[in-house]
Every structure is written in structure tokens, then in C-alpha cells.
Amino acid sequence: MVFKKMLSAFGVGGPSVDTVLTNPNTRPGLTLDGQVNLVGGDAEAAIEQVVIGLVTRVEVEGHDAEYSGTLEFHRMAVSGPLQLAPKQQLSIPFQLPIPWETPITDVYGQRLHGMTMGLRTELAIARAVDKSDLDQVAVHPLPVHERILEAFQRLGFRFKHADLERGHIRGVQQTLPFYQEIEFFAAPQYASTIREVELTFVTSQRGVEVILECDKRGGFLSAGHDAFGRYQVAHTDVDRVDWAQVVDGWLRETTSRYGSLRSQYGPSHGHGPGRGHGMGGMVAGAALGVAGGMIAGEMIEDAFEGDFGGDFGGDFGGDE
């Protein structure tokens, strides 16, 4: 009996957890529905709490270091304390609200190269090792996101990469501790002026704040630099405008008023093409560690590699 208790403390013969999603596809502002299935172990177990949380891969840049980690950014308890009898089966349904700022992972049915997203389930067991489960989640764009992404394609931009950067964009109201950058190679008609463009959506219930970072080419007597633009879009505008014309106007305005934007956002301190001299100048309080600004406050290193088998491939609108 003592030996069984000891094994149970190390998770041997203890309860198991398996989360089943009704549909792993969702969008910002909607919900993720499913149920947590518990099966009792060899002995009665005191469950302290069952919690689900969204996790994703985030890049962290400091003055002299850069690394990535898997960050839990939104969580919800689906059950409080309960007793689970030996071999007892218990299903707990849930509806997890998806934050409006949740990054997009899939477009046109394909995973954006560089993006990961999962739902992590924690089973906290009294006096024993916690159990966990991780399920892949796909976050699709809202209609206004789709129109803007389609406009970039119509204008000839080719998708390059997407990632999440830890920090906050100065002057932009954010609820999450990171922002998404969707990177494009410049379309031919812009190639003489722009090398690449980074697109960021900061979404709310009312609409979307669109942030553009254009990596401008240098001239005969001038060095290259990055130019920024910020634009507000309402969800109700989705079918009211020609989005290719709107995006073209944004790009031309952004690249023509570099001086005033640079003054507004302050000096830059980034590094590297497409990022250097770039979004660093707009980011206020980018984190150097894992404390401060994180919801749930933890990095789950290598969680995705262990449960999903590595990076997800796929892209849209061009080659890497």
C-alpha cells in the first residue's frame, strides 16, 4: 500500500486527462468548445483544479539576447476541487472565450509558417505530479483580416513568415503581452522602394488597428530605413471598400511620411532586416525575461515539439 502511494505520487497509476475539442478551428472573439475527459487511476484521487489555457510560441528580444519560448497567454478553470474514484470516468464540458487579439495561425486552410497554437489542459492533483494534455488549435482570420490579407496578395506581395514578438507597441491598446508580425516580400511594383513589409493586427470588438512596417530601400545618397503606419479599421467596413486600393494607399502614405512617424515613435533600436531600425522603436517595455505582462506567467519550453511533433509547415500566397 505504501509502495502504491509512492508510485501514485510520481504519476504512476494515477488519473489521466484527455481533452476533446468539438472543433479545433476558431476565430478571434469566438469560443473554443469541448470537454475534458478524466479517468480515475488505481486509487481515489483528490483533484484540486482542472484548468485549460491557450499556449503559443513567442519570440523574446533583449539588448544582447534573443530566444523563443512557449507562452500560456489565456486560461480558464473548468473545475474546482473534486474527488475522482478509482477508474471513474468523468467528462467536464467547457466553452473557452477566444481573446480578440489572439493571433491568426491559419489562412485559406493552411498553417502560416512560423505559427503554433495549442490548448493545454492541466490536472492538478493533491500530493502528486500534475497531469497535462495539449491539443492543436487553428485560429482563422476574421472577415476584415481576410480582406486585408487578400489585398496584399492581389497587389502581388508574397508571404514570407509569421511570428509573435514579446512586448507592446507604443500608443496601441493591447491586452496580450505580444503582437503578431506577418511578413511579406515586396510586390514588383513596390520593389524599387520597399524590400519587405510586416503587418500587425491588434483586434478589438469594435475593429482592428493595422500597423505596417515597411523596410525601405536606400537611395544613391541615403541609407535604407524602416517606415511605420497605423490605421484604424471597423469590422463594419469589411464590404464597403476596395481593400487593394486601401492597402495601396496605406503603403504609399507610410513610405512617404517616414520623418513624422519616426519622430512620433522615437528612435529605433532594433537589429536585422525587416526588424532592425524597426518595430523596436515602436515597442515599449519589451520583456527580457518571463516575468511581467504574462498572463499565467510561465514559459512551457518545448511543449509543442513534444506534443505536436515540431514546427507546422504551410504558407499562403508565395514561397518562403
Describe the fold and architecture:
With 320 residues, the chain is of the alpha+beta class. It has 5 helices and 19 strands. It has helices at 2-9, 143-154, 243-256, 258-265, 303-308, and strands at 16-21, 25-26, 31-39, 45-61, 66-79, 82-84, 89-97, 106-107, 110-111, 118-125, 131-136, 138-139, 158-166, 168-169, 178-185, 194-203, 207-216, 225-234, 283-284. The strands form 6 sheets. Strands 4, 5, 6, 10 and 11 form a 5-stranded antiparallel β-sheet that branches. A 5-stranded antiparallel β-sheet has the order 13-15-16-17-18. A hairpin with a 5-residue loop joins strand 10 and strand 11. Helix 2 packs across helix 3 (243-256). It is elongated, with a radius of gyration of 22 Å. Residues 1-12, 218-224 and 258-315 have low confidence and may be disordered.
Q: What descriptors fit this protein?
A:
5 helices; 41% strand; disordered N terminus
